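Before relying on records like the one below, remember that each one covers exactly one chain. Contacts with other chains, cofactors or solvent are not represented anywhere in the record.
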Amino acid sequence: MLLKGDHGITEIPSDRWNAEAFYSAEGKPGTMNTTMAGFLNAPSSFDHEFFGIAPHDALEMDPQQRLLLQASWRAIEDAAIDPASLAGSRTSVHVGIMSSEWAVLHMADYAEITPRRGTGNGYHMAANRISYHLDLKGPSVAVDTACSSSLVAVHLAIAALSAGDCDLAIAAGVNIILTPALSIFYTQAGLSAPDGECKPFSAHANGIGRGEGVGVVVLRRLSDAIAHKQPIYAVIEGSAVSHDGRSNGVTAPNRWSQQQVIGNAYARAGVRPAEVNFVEAHGTGTTLGDMIEVQALGAVHAGEREQPCALGSVKGNIGHTEGAAGIAGLIKTCLALDRRILPPSRHSNEENADLRLDQHGLWLARLPMRLPAEGTVRGAVSSFGLGGTNSHLVLATPPPADRRPERGGVGVLTVSAGTVTALRRNLASIAEMIDREPSERLPQICHSTNLVKTSLKHRWALPAWNREKLKADLRAQIADPRIPTGSGYATPKVIFLFTGPGAQYPRMTRALYDNLPAYRDRFDEVDSAMRPHFGRSIASLVIDDMYPDGVSVHDPALAQPALFAVGYALGATLRDLGVWPEAMLGYGTGEYAAACLAGVLPLSAACEIVVALAASTQKLTDYGAMVAVEATAAQVKPHIDAEPLVTIAGYNGPRDLVISGDTDAVARVTGALREAGVATKPVLGTPAMHSPLMRPVVAEFSRAADAVAAYRPVVPIASTLHGRLITDGLDSAYWVEQITSPVRFDAALSAVRELGPTHLIEVGPAPTTLDLVRRADPDHEMTVLTPCPGETAAGHEVAEVLAALYRDGLTPRWQRLYTKQQQMPWRLPPYVFDDHAASPVTAVQQASTEGLPAASATESVVERTLAALAEVGGYSTDDLVMDARLLDDLGYDSLTLIRLSDRLTTLLRIDGPMDLSELPQLETVKDVVSYVSARHDAS
């Protein structure tokens, strides 16, 4: 709008007041000379559910408080910060506000004053509401210096940051026109423009045109913003505040004081006037005000510059927003510096010749003006209060930051919202952004959503590696009437399953290595740890497929170290990404990776014994064979009883066994089983583990295992040797016995099932262990996740795992998913709030507080309790669900609980008042219903 030189001046909306009743072109006493001003479209709209405010409370809140809450949330998001992450922080709030017409309208009827109406009004509450609902612990201050209020609020926020009172500051301004009072005042004082438009420094300037709006900026120390890679609009280099002192009248501006505050701001910024490219002036369009302001600016700028300083005022576009005027000018200045283009000053086609702008080193920007593309560009902002309080700020473009996107990579796009309906709206908003942005920006956008859009109740996430696919997936999700979401209140219980022998294949996890920096780092770590014991790079074998002639990944001497390396690297990667398991279960070689990640074995020691095991088995004259069979132990036992060199090596499920032993003997057993209709499958890449053939290995392996110290696990391990959870250290005897004894996977799985897991993750190159789980318990309800699905892995599967876990309540360590360049925050569309119409801006729709009709004897206690809950909050009973939280979801604060206690006592005919000390302990609707039911039964 600013670049086009447009404006937002309209007729007074019909829901404000009867404009004609107070209008006269002559400005007769008690009237205003215009019916035009700059009005917001829907100032009564407020998403009370989002902030956990009950409908009755929302009805009686000053619309200025409603606007500030929503605008503050959006401004914090724009700073690449999750607003919920500020809870408990030293964040300050400074709000400029000069009118409280809501209080004028609603606090004069003394008989109707309620607790809600009291807390819904007052300057202090404009700031305190923000601090309360975001749980901010820094200073919380409302500032009224009339028209300069919000720029003075910025100055005070800067002071709080400088003094160390806060680490981040929210500075705001707000103005809503609810009565004709100030319009009449401006008319009677000769200050009001008949057409309702400010015409700053124009030959046609004839007074003030009013406007309303809300603006919020987020401030922090430059060093902190740079350290957090935040997008910076501008840097405030200096600010100053002063007062006019005595002048021609308490409302008359003082040129000398304005000149002094401008000079003070420049001095604090350490800049010369010639270094300031433009000034966003107070510029009300009054003859006296414009003249004095130009003289004050000229005293600073004239004769100091080769090129005149550009001059303008946003009031020409949106009107004089009074308490929000300073923040409006500041936001325009920040946008101009950020985009290095200065919007034109509306009504500047014919400047006021009496101002002699050129002689004062000034000129009006008639067209959009490109600011220098390189180097530091500066702008300044003035705001002067009706009572004489002046403020001036000097701003500059921020230090250059390398925000170039980086091609390639995988991310997770996250969106969260207060309701499923709101989630759909916000998904659509993000989808529109992705349509506009180039594909190489996708990882930065994903990381930014992880920073900003993750903390609300209803969660949605999708892995993103291809822009066109993501766009298609987004459209499908938005159109889906059953959009799948998760709850931020859930806590997934994850079990890691580490893959065992037979899952190896050439170039396994190569796609992960190429696309996921965290996995690459962890695989390089295990490669370095294994090299002294293995004698060469395991990465050259696993990732690059560079094997010696005649050797493959299925050779036992290579398969076991390779599987361990992949299991360790993938498990460590998931842990780095914030996925912490409740327990770990490893199959065969996978148990070494589980023990290492559980802290039982240091990485170097684990590498040493895995390589030792592989080297020992390589010396066997007969590797033997392992075969998986779909049969019961009773079916298999008659066949192996006749073969002393064959044994059951693994009990994976009721009809899921592994036999192991001498090659010929195993072939005879499997042949007999196949004749009996039993399905069999050879296990590749492993000797006959857990069989008599491993006895020659024991002595040599024992020497290596004895040299390794063992520690207590920090995460429980489900032992496949004992078939139970292990919380003690696993000594060398355990590992020696493990290679000769059968694997009791079924018992170990039962042990971890007793922990109540919600998610199983296969940590390895293929989902072979998950296949065992499916066969053992096909009806289980656990979510199974596969970060590497096998040879078809494309490298984005870990992102899919994180997306699923996030939807189910986990908050990952997102930064480990991205490179440093991909972690550069990118500005996202702000949260799209619900457009509930809280109330007309001029009248409270007061709900009855006298109670519902007397409850009939046939109504249940539950029904009457829900009716009382609905009444005191202003809900319908259909709005109440049993798991809704009284404070966070329904906004029932201490005052509401008092009313609830009184209402329940009457409605349920309970003898004596209810115990108020117990009510705050009741967190949900269900808690209240249960409590009241118990009291009712007892009475």
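Residues 843-858 have pLDDT under 50 and may be disordered.
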